[in-house]
Design brief:
heterodimer, A: mainly alpha, Ferritin, B: Ferritin, two-stranded antiparallel ribbon, 2 strands, 61% helix
Chain lengths: 254, 332
C-alpha cells in the first residue's frame, strides 16, 4: 500500500508547477514576438493547465483531496509547493524560452518515469501526456538552437538566460525529506536525484549544439524551498490575480 | 472576431469614384462579369487597382482587429474563474491570434507584407474595430464580448465569406467555424452570470449597459451616411449593408437577452411588427468617429501594448529571418 501522504505531496508539487508555469505561459497570449509564438505559448499554457487539472482530479478522486477549482483557486500561498523557477515573472522572451526549455525537459523525464509507476493513475496520465510533451520539447529545442545560432545578440541572450535560470531549474528536483525514500521504495517514481541526472542528459546535447555553456553543475546551488511552501515574492500576487474573480463568491458557479 | 462593415478611409484619402478607375475597360467588364457569375477571384487573376486597394484595407483591418481584439479579453485569462473558463478563454484568444495570422496571410496575397501592415497599425494609419478600444472592466465584460461581440462578428463574417476574393473567403470559412465555438462558450458564460447570484446578475447588467453603444456602433454608420458602398457591393467586397447586418444581429440576439431578464439601455428599442425591422435610438455617431480617430478610452493603451510586443520581439524576428548564418567559435 503506497503512502497517501507521500503520493499527495508528490502530486501537489507536480500539479502546482504545471499550474503556475501554465499561468506564466498564458501571460504571453497576445504579446509574443511573432504571432506564431503567441499561439505556441498559449497552446502550451492550455496543456500545462490541463495537466494541473488532471493531477488535482487524481488527488480529488483517489486521495480525498478537495475539488480541483477550490484547491487551485483558494489555497493560501504557503500551501503551494511549486518550484521558484515557475514563479518568476516572464521577463523577456529569452528568459521565458529558456525556462520553457529547462522546465519541459524536466517535465518530460518525470512523466516518462511515471509510465512505469506502481501508482496506476500516474501510468495512465503519463501515457496520455506523452504526445503533448514531445511537441513542447521539440518547440523548445528548435527555438533555442535557432536563436543561439542565428545572431550574436540571440546567442548572448540565450547564454544569459541560461545563466539566470539554471539554478532555479535545478530547484525543480528538490527532494522531500519526509517522503522521498518511501516513493522510491514503493516504486512510485525513481526519485529526484535520478530525474535530475536524466534531465541533464537531455538538455546537455541541445546546449552543445547551440554552443551554449552549461555551468559546472557542481558549482550551481539549486534554489530550493518551493516544495516546502517557501516562495518568492512573485507567487502571492500571481495567486491573488488568479483567484480574483473566483473568490468574489466561492459558492457561486462561474 | 471582427469590426463590422465599416472600412475606414483616411479623411484625405481618395474616395472610390467611378471616374477614378483607370483600369482597362475590357478587362474590367470581364472581371465584373466573373463576379456576377459568382466566380472567385484568385491572387494571380487580373483585378482593378481599386478592388485590390479596398480588399487590402478590409482584410488588413480585419486582421488588426483580431490581434488587438485579443488584448481586452487576454487580460482576463489570468483571472478567469475556474479551470473550465480559464482553458476555454486561453483557447479562444489563441484562436483570435490564429485568425489574425490567417488574415494577414490572405492580405499578403494582394501584395502587402505582414510587416508593412503591422507598421501601419502601429503608426495609426491603419485601423481596427472600435469595439476593442473600450476597457473590459469585469469578468462580466468578458462574457458580453464572448457572446455578443462574437455574435456580431459572425453576422459580418458569414456575409463576407460569400464575397468574391478566394483567399479571404477561405480564411473566413475556417474562422466562422471556430467562431461558432467561441459564441457557444461566450453564451454559456453569459448565461451562467444571468442565472447566477444577484451580484453576478448586477455585474452582467452593468457590463451590458456599458457595451451596448459599442455594439450598436459595431456594424458602422447608418446606410444613409455610408460612402462608397455601391461599387464595393457590386464587386462583392462588401456583402451586406451596415443597417442590414445590424438589423439581423438585433433580430437574433435582443430576444435572447430579454429572455434572460436583462434590459438594454435604449427605451426606443423594439421590433416594428409592421415592417419587421428593429427600431432604436441612434447611437452617438460622433463618438464613433472620435474613437476611430484615436480618441477612445483605450486606443493609446492598445497600441502601446502592441508597440511593446513589436519592440521586445524585434531581436527574435531578426534571428528567425537569419536561418543560415552560423556562429563559429574560436578553436582554442
Amino acid at each position: 500500500m503506497i503512502s497517501n501522504a507521500a503520493l499527495t505531496d508528490l502530486i501537489i508539487k507536480m500539479a502546482d508547477d504545471e499550474l503556475i508555469q501554465g499561468h506564466r505561459n498564458s501571460e504571453w497570449t497576445g504579446l509574443g514576438p511573432v504571432m506564431e509564438e503567441d499561439i505556441a505559448f498559449s497552446s502550451m499554457a492550455q496543456d500545462k493547465i490541463g495537466h494541473a487539472w488532471a493531477l488535482y482530479r487524481i488527488l480529488h478522486e483517489n486521495l480525498g483531496g478537495e475539488d480541483p477549482d477550490r484547491f487551485a483557486f483558494m489555497r493560501p500561498e504557503s500551501a503551494f509547493k511549486c518550484s521558484h523557477l515557475v514563479e518568476m515573472p516572464n521577463g523577456g522572451y529569452d528568459f521565458s524560452l529558456m525556462r520553457h526549455f529547462l522546465f519541459d525537459h524536466a517535465e518530460t523525464v518525470r512523466y516518462e518515469s511515471l509510465q512505469e509507476s506502481s501508482y496506476e493513475p500516474f501510468q495512465q496520465l503519463s501515457k496520455k501526456l506523452k504526445g503533448e510533451l514531445k511537441y513542447h520539447t521539440l518547440h523548445a529545442n528548435a527555438f533555442i538552437l535557432q536563436l543561439s545560432n542565428a545572431s550574436e545578440e540571440g546567442y548572448a541572450r540565450m547564454q544569459t538566460a541560461l545563466n539566470d535560470t539554471i539554478a532555479l531549474a535545478a530547484g525543480i528536483f528538490e527532494p522531500s525529506a519526509a517522503h522521498e525514500e518511501t516513493l522510491i521504495t514503493e516504486k512510485v517514481y525513481p526519485g529526484e536525484k535520478a530525474l535530475y541526472n536524466r534531465w541533464l542528459d537531455r538538455i546537455y546535447p541541445v546546449l552543445v549544439k547551440a554552443s551554449l555553456n552549461l555551468p559546472d553543475m557542481k558549482t550551481v546551488a539549486p534554489v530550493y524551498g518551493g516544495r516546502q511552501g517557501f516562495h518568492t515574492t512573485h507567487l502571492a500576487p500571481l495567486l491573488k490575480e488568479m483567484g480574483e474573480v473566483f473568490n468574489l463568491d466561492t459558492e457561486a458557479s462561474w | 472576431m471582427y469590426g463590422g462593415g465599416y472600412i475606414f478611409d483616411e479623411p484625405n484619402g481618395k474616395q472610390l469614384r467611378e471616374e477614378q478607375l483607370h483600369d482597362d475597360p475590357e478587362k474590367l467588364v470581364a472581371f465584373e462579369e466573373r463576379i456576377a457569375r459568382g466566380e472567385k477571384i484568385e491572387p494571380g487573376d487580373w483585378m482593378p487597382a481599386e478592388y485590390r486597394r479596398q480588399l487590402i484595407r478590409l482584410i488588413e483591418q480585419h486582421a488588426h482587429s483580431e490581434i488587438i481584439g485579443a488584448l481586452p479579453e487576454g487580460t482576463w485569462i489570468t483571472r478567469a474563474p475556474g479551470f473550465k473558463r480559464k482553458l476555454a478563454l486561453i483557447a479562444k484568444v489563441q484562436d483570435e491570434i490564429g485568425h489574425g495570422q490567417l488574415l494577414y496571410n490572405a492580405a499578403e496575397t494582394l501584395g502587402k507584407s505582414r510587416e508593412a501592415m503591422i507598421n501601419d497599425l502601429l503608426s495609426g494609419k491603419s485601423k481596427y474595430s472600435n469595439v476593442f478600444n473600450y476597457p473590459a472592466k469585469t469578468w462580466a465584460d468578458v462574457t458580453v464580448i464572448g457572446f455578443l461581440i462574437d455574435a456580431a462578428a459572425i453576422v459580418n463574417q458569414v456575409a463576407n465569406a460569400k464575397g468574391s476574393y478566394g483567399p479571404y473567403c477561405r480564411a473566413l470559412e475556417r474562422i466562422c467555424y471556430e467562431e461558432s465555438f467561441h459564441l457557444k462558450q461566450g453564451h454559456d458564460a453569459f448565461i451562467e452570470l444571468a442565472t447566477g447570484t444577484p451580484e453576478q446578475k448586477a455585474m452582467l447588467q452593468d457590463a451590458l449597459n456599458r457595451w451596448w453603444q459599442p455594439i450598436m456602433h459595431f456594424f458602422g454608420p447608418p446606410d444613409k451616411t455610408s460612402q462608397h458602398s455601391e461599387k464595393l457591393m457590386q464587386w462583392k467586397v462588401k456583402m451586406a449593408s451596415n443597417d442590414e447586418m445590424r438589423n439581423q444581429f438585433l433580430d437574433s440576439y435582443v430576444p435572447k437577452i430579454w429572455e434572460l431578464g436583462l434590459t438594454l439601455p435604449d427605451p426606443a428599442l423594439r421590433k416594428n411588427p409592421d415592417t419587421g425591422r428593429w427600431e432604436y435610438t441612434d447611437p452617438d455617431w460622433n463618438e464613433f468617429f472620435r474613437v476611430i480617430n484615436g480618441g477612445g478610452p483605450c486606443n493609446a493603451e492598445r497600441l502601446q501594448v502592441r508597440k511593446w510586443a513589436e519592440e521586445e520581439g524585434r531581436w527574435v524576428r531578426k534571428a528567425l529571418m537569419n536561418p543560415t548564418e552560423r556562429r563559429s567559435l574560436p578553436v582554442a
